[in-house]
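[Solved] Which block belongs to which protein?

Original post:
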Amino acid sequence: MMHRIFYVFFILASLFCLVSCAYTSSEFDDEEREFKSASKKENIQKIEYSPFHGTKTNIAVFPLGLSERTAKAYPHLLNMNVGLGLHNVLSNELESSGRFEMVEIEEEALKKILKVQWLSSSGMVQEDQTVETAKMYGAKKLVYGEVSDYAESKKESSALLVSSTTKSIKVSVEVRYLDIETASYTSASSTAYGFDWGNASEKAVKLAVKNLVDKLDKKNSQSKEKKE
């Protein structure tokens, strides 16, 4: 009799566990699946660039802007350190490509731009502003851009009466490379996913820079072929 009671209890407990473990809820089910899939694909440690043996280009790198829509939806992003951190990731990744020499812009000038573009959520910096500043520092090429999209998704799960919440972040970034002399620009963008702002934004910036460098390499290659 005791064996039968134990057996029934075991079956019921197993069923309860299965039901509990299977239970999940998410604010954005479709996005959650997308987050999970993309995060695995974009587990970026270091971007690999093709070998470069040409002359490095002097560029001025400006802080990314924050779109008004994103700032209104997620006001916690309106922080000077968040903007500066993203600017450092952008500058470091451009330098890591081996194609650019960074023209150093004074910290006070950077903070002034950040106040206008990031803290006031004005979006992408205006070209005339960047051109004027870049010329002051002797740069003929410059890079600027914005965080064009940001989203958060929370997933709740429960198992054996213990609940947990997993947070996923999506960040979209657009960067532009402007040639001051010809007034022509090349743009590139990327969307990346992670479990916090730092992880997702770093991925997005690195991927955007990689896409930008690939486009510039292709343009330079085509230009050389025409000259030959």
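(Second protein starts here: sequence line, then its structure tokens.)
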Amino acid sequence: MSLDAIDAVNWSAIPNPTWHRCDDPERVAHALRLLTVSTTANETGDAAALLAGSGFICGHAAMVFPAAYAATPILLNLVEHGQRPRIKDAALGLLSNALNYFPTAGYNRVDTPYGTDVPLCCAIARYIRGRRSALLAQDFTGPPELSAGIRADSAAVSSGER
């Protein structure tokens, strides 16, 4: 399922804000494939490190790239349906980082089905809020404001307020 979702994205149409080959969105697709099929701790770690150091996020610079928007639903699928706990943990960590990092100037907005020119962080957060039950089941510990929002939204839905 996740491999089909990865293949369905036109990664070459996503901008690369740094123009470095290592930040090419196609590398994000490659790393997502590696993460999806990883069977050992080393394979999972290598795939997560590739995502954390290339066109998804840049950990040492605390940057999030436009490809993170396209990768978010794939990572959420891995959280919900991943075959191994370490894959789920890696996906959760990457999603948390994407919310905590800063977009590159001039590349901080994306087009979504619900609007154009949406702030990147808001677009990613909307995907995450849409999958709140899966994240709560995995004990998502993203940014406190988002974690609290997910828990509050879930409580409101459970009580019939939403």
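Accepted answer:
You had them paired correctly. Confirming on the second one: The CA atoms of residues 35 and 47 lie 5 Å apart.
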